[in-house]
Amino acid sequence: MRRSTVVRTLWSALAVVIALGWVFPVYWMVNSSLLPTSRLESFIPTFIPFGGSLDNFTAALADGDFYSALGMSVAITLITVFFCLVFAFFAAVAISRFRFRGRKSFIVAVLLVQMLPAEGLFIAQYKMMSSVGLLNSVGGVSIIYIAAVVPFTIWMLRGFVTGIPVDLEEAAMVDGLSRTQAFLRITFPLLAPGLIASGVYAFLQAWNEFTVALVLLPAEASQTLPLWLRGFVQASATRATDWGQVMAASTLVAVPVIIFFLIVQGRLTSGLVSGAVKG
Amino acid sequence: MKRTFTPQVLLLPAILILLLGMGYPLVWQVVTSLQKFGIQQQFGKPASFVGVDNYVTLFADAELWGVVARSLLFCVVTATVTLVIGMLLALLMTVVTKTARLILQVALLLAWAMPVVAAMTVWIWLFDRRRGVVNYLLDLVPGVDMNRFNWLETPTTFFIVAGIIVLWMSVPFVAFSAYAGLTQVSDEVLEAAQIDGATPWQRLREIILPMIRPVIMIVFLLQLIWDLRVFTQITMLQDAGSKSGAFDLLGTYIYKLGTRAQDFGMASAVSILVLAITIALSWFYVRSLLREEEA
C-alpha cells in the first residue's frame, strides 16, 4: 500500500512539472505583455512582471485597425455559427432519423469533405470570390467557412441525435403527436448540449481561421483578428520588434478565446467524442 | 407520401453550401490544373488547355519533390511524436492524484485553446535570437553556448521549431481523446488481469491498447492530415525568418505559386496532389468508420 502511494506521488509530481512546462508559453505571453520594452530588451529575462503595467495594451488598442478587425471577426463568426448550426441540424436529423437512398453516399461525402484541406482549395476559392466581387467581404469568407465547418458539425450533431432514443419520439406519437411535433417537443430540447458543442466548435474555427482569411481578405480594411495580429507583428518588426506590444496584441486575441474555451470545454470534448464513437 | 422526400429536403441546405464552397472550387481546381497560365493570362487572355502538361512539369520538378518529401517527413514525424507523447500523457493521467490530473489537464487545455496566430507570435518570441527565453535557458547549461543562435536560419532547425510548436498545440487533443478512451477500459478486467499475474506492461499491451485502438487510429489519421497542411505556422515562421524555398511545405508552396507567380495552372496541379494525398490518407479512416457503421 505504502509503496503505491509513493509511486503515485512521484508520477503526480512529474505531471505537475509537465503541466508547468506546457503552460509556460501562455504564461510568457501574458508576462511579457505587462513589461515595458526596455525590460524585455534586457539579456536577463524578467520571469515575474513586478511593476508591470497595461501600457502595451493601451498601445496595441490604439492601433486603428483593431476595432475594424474585431468587427469583421464578430460578423463572420456569428454568420458562420448560425448557418452551420441550422444546416448541420437539418442534415444530422436527416441522416440519423431517416433511411433513404443516397444516405450512405452523403455520409461518405461528409467524411471526405471534412478532410479537404483549405490549402488545397484556396486558389480556386480566391478566383471564385474575385469573379463575383466577394473578395474582402464578410459574405465571401462566411460561405467558405460554413462549407468548411458544416461537415464536422453534421458529424458531431449526428452523434447527439443518434444518442437520443427514437422510442421517446415514438411514445409521444402514440400519445397523438405528429412526427414533427414529437421531434420538436421531445428530442429537440435534449439536443441542446449537442447544439452548444457544435456551435462552440464552429465559433472556434471561424474565430481563429487564418489561411482562407489571408487569401480572401487582402485589403487591410477588411482583415479579421488573426490577420490583424500578424500585420501588427510585421509592422512592429520593421522597427526593432516591440515585443511588449506584440505580446499584448497576442494576449488580446487569445485570452477571450481561452476563457470561452475553458468554460465550454467539457461539452466540446464530449461532443467530439460522441460524434466519433456513436454509430 | 410526404415523408419519403423529407430527408432530402433536410439535406438540401448542407449540400448546396458544400457544392458552393467546396465542390465548385474543387472542380475549378481540377479544370485549371489542366490549363496553362502565363504573362498573357495576367492581362485577361483566357488560359488554354494543355492536358496533363502541368503534371508532367511537376513530376519532373526537383523542387516540388523536395517540398513533397519534406512535407511528408514533417507530417509523419510530427504526427507520430504527437501521438506518442499524447498517449503517454493520457496514461500518466490515469496514475496520478486527482489534483495533479486537474493541473495537467488545465495546462493542456490552455495550450489547446490558444489561437494559432497568437501561439505563433509567442513561440517566435520564445525562440528569438537575442532575447528569447529558450536561448537564455539553454545558455545556462554549462558548456552550451546558444546566445544569438538563430533557430530560423537553417531549414533543419526551422522545422524542428515548427515541429515543437505543432506538437505543443496538438498533443492536448490526442491526450484528451486517448484519456477518454482509457476511462472506457473497465477496471474489473484490469484487476482480474492483475490477479492473474499480468505485469503492467502486459496489461497495457494486451488489454488497454487493443481497447483504445479505434481512438488511436482516428486521432493518428487526423494528426497526419492536419500536419500535412500546416500553413499558418510555416507562414508565420517565414515572416520571422526566411521565405526561401528551402523553408516551404506544400501549403506555403501552393500559396507562393498562386499569389506571387500567378501561375494558377501549376498551383492547382500541386493542390490536386495535396488533395490526392489527403484523400488517400482519409480513405482508410472513412472505410474503417463505415465498417463500424455496418456492424
UniProtKB/TrEMBL annotation, chain A:
ABC transmembrane type-1 domain span: 70-264
Residues annotated as signal peptide: none
Chief location bin: membrane
Coiled coil: none
Record bears the keyword S-adenosyl-L-methionine: no
UniProt entry tagged with the keyword RNA-binding: no
Assigned keywords, A-Z: Cell membrane, Membrane, Transmembrane, Transmembrane helix, Transport
Places the protein is found: Cell membrane
One GO BP: transmembrane transport
InterPro entries: BP-dep_ABC_trans_perm, MetI-like, MetI-like_sf
Membrane topology: Multi-pass membrane protein
Gene3D superfamilies: MetI-like
GO cellular component, one term: plasma membrane
Segments crossing the lipid bilayer: 9-30, 66-94, 106-126, 138-161, 182-204, 243-264
PANTHER family documented for this protein: INNER MEMBRANE ABC TRANSPORTER PERMEASE PROTEIN YCJP, MALTOSE TRANSPORT SYSTEM PERMEASE-RELATED
Family, per entry: Belongs to the binding-protein-dependent transport system permease family.
Protein name (record): Carbohydrate ABC transporter membrane protein 2 (CUT1 family)
Species of origin: Homoserinimonas aerilata
UniProtKB/TrEMBL annotation, chain B:
UniProt record, GO biological process: transmembrane transport
SUPFAM superfamilies: MetI-like
Localization in the cell: Cell membrane
Domain ABC transmembrane type-1: 68-285
Record-level GO cellular component terms: plasma membrane
Family membership: Belongs to the binding-protein-dependent transport system permease family.
The name this protein goes by in its record: Carbohydrate ABC transporter membrane protein 1 (CUT1 family)
